[in-house]
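Appendix B. Worked example

We walk through a single record from start to finish. Start with the input: the chain for N-carbamoyl-D-amino-acid hydrolase, Paragemmobacter aquarius, length 313.
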Amino acid sequence: MARHLITAAAQMGPIGRSETRIDTVRRLVAMMREAKARGCELVVFPELALTTFFPRWMIEDEAELDSFYEAEMPCAATMPLFDEAQRLGIGFNLGYAELVEEGGVKRRFNTSILVDASGRIIGKYRKVHLPGHDAPQAGRAFQHLEKRYFEPGDLGFPVFRGFGGVMGMAICNDRRWPETYRVMGLQGVDMVMLGYNTPFDHTGDEAVNSLTLFHNHLSMQAGAYQNATWVVGTAKCGTEEGSRMGGQSVIIAPSGEIVAQAVTVEDEVITAKCDLDMGRIYKETIFNFARHRRPEHYRLIVERTGAILPPEG
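Next comes the structure step. The output line below is what the pipeline stores for this chain.
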């Protein structure tokens, strides 16, 4: 029996710094309803979908900084999204800033969750590959302080059983690192859900910045093909508080082909009927890890050449 999962990527336009959670959740609910009306069983929202991309600013007041995080999920502001998902019978993937307190110490993560059609959280992921800086950089119109406001995720790259398949999550910069997809690929992942907020000024080099959208798709398409998995990449985009962010949300097949793509930089729902068995032919032939992958030789090369991983930082 074929495993088809009708899936939506719910791209978001800008979220202003003054916009409330209530306003933002209303937008998410509206797109969830549109996705359900198209027959979708799962909707993927962006990274940090509840607030503006606050790491673009230096925020020194701790109370102000805390206001961008969620100390519990669901909370009062996000409960309408969970209630509507349960009412409609649709699952969702949501990115947000997570604040937890352990032993009197605050810990902050860039997090995403997977929620099933009953409104129950069945998976959590915390972003591993944090880009940017831990201190303000001179000469930048907008900072990129993810390393200041988050710590690297401590949950690894887990996969979760749900929606008739093996589901995985990643967030934004994770998409550029092949290890992200490979760790989940080794666990038999069928679909990777990946939200992002990507500014065009992130490198300081105009030639590189001009390739932002090309590199965005390149990394996700390669990850999908090399690991025989669907990838759903969902953006928060447009000009947000003066910062331009890339859109072009996509749904990518295990062949590496883009099967749906957003055409605006506003709230937009794109959908695809994803055959979760489509990756099987790739897993059994070209990317049959058990037959063709040779990790023992990778280690041997490192031992013989003395190659080492680059130092942290």
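Two observations about the output. The chain has one domain: 4-282. The first strand starts at residue 4 and ends at 11.
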